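Field reference: sequence -> structure
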Amino acid sequence: MKRWLRLAGLVLALAAAPALAKTVPVANSPAKQLAERLKQAKNADPATQFELGLDYRNGAGVPRDAGQAYKWIRLAAQGNLAEAQYTVGLMDAAGDGTPRKLTDAADWFRKASKQGHLRATILLADMSRDGTGTAVDMIQAARLYRIAAERNDMHSIIALADAYLKGEGVPKSAADAANWLRRGAWLGNADARYRLALVLLDGDPAVRTGHKPSRNGIEAAFWLQLAADQGYAPAQYSLGMAYYGGIALPLDRYKALDWINRAADQTYGPALRQLAFFYRIGRFTAKDPQRALMYLELAEQFGDKGARLDRDELSRDVPATQQQVAKKRAQEWLSGRGL
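Structure field:
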């Protein structure tokens, strides 16, 4: 009896299946889905407008179309959606789907910034500082950088510190610059650590002469060492030069040469030029004009502005055959580093 009941139940279930299937709604086709999205977008839903604009921009489910992307993202921006205001500002600045309009870009960034959009705030600060799409306004730039710096944006921390060092938009103050850079340094940024060390030393060991003591020397050496340990080439070079000049650190020819070589290995032009100087005069190394020429060739390739003049001057004392060897060794140096 029980077996019969189970069979009967199965038969009834199978018989009902087609009828049940008819009641399941058929999924909307892509065309219907897009039509529904367009309908919603036209009804001024900023979030939907923005999503649709991004899809046109990326070719996601619709043909890639920069003009349509700009149209919908701009509508979303007019609906006061901060991310859309930022994005349409980027498109105006780049001429993406629209003629390039820097003034409009600045206006959109300003609107997004007022709503707390961090990236829009940073870009508007840059534009105000540089006079791009808006009048130069150093006071506004500093104010905006401060807003972003307080949210730990590293670009803004460094830009605000630079403003304090130059007295642009804020009173000139090395102490305030150091305080902002110290914030960036504690956040672990190598460039902030390097810059803080230079502020504390009142100059770069790479260009200073003599053994002028600094009451901030211990802290400066601490940050410079940390930045160098992070592999930051400018800090490695300055640390090497601090050991070379006995600035905030004891004189140490071996550490000087080691750190300068580390920076040079990263193709840092000033370090390459410094090594050329050592080999040219025989400081810390055997005198080797040919190797000095090699380093000057490399320094010029990597943007050191004084390397060409040094190279031309040294070339007058080096035979042409040795100059060719120096150029070959420079290429071998590059090849050995996969460059």
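Note: Residues 254 and 327 are 27 Å apart (CA to CA).
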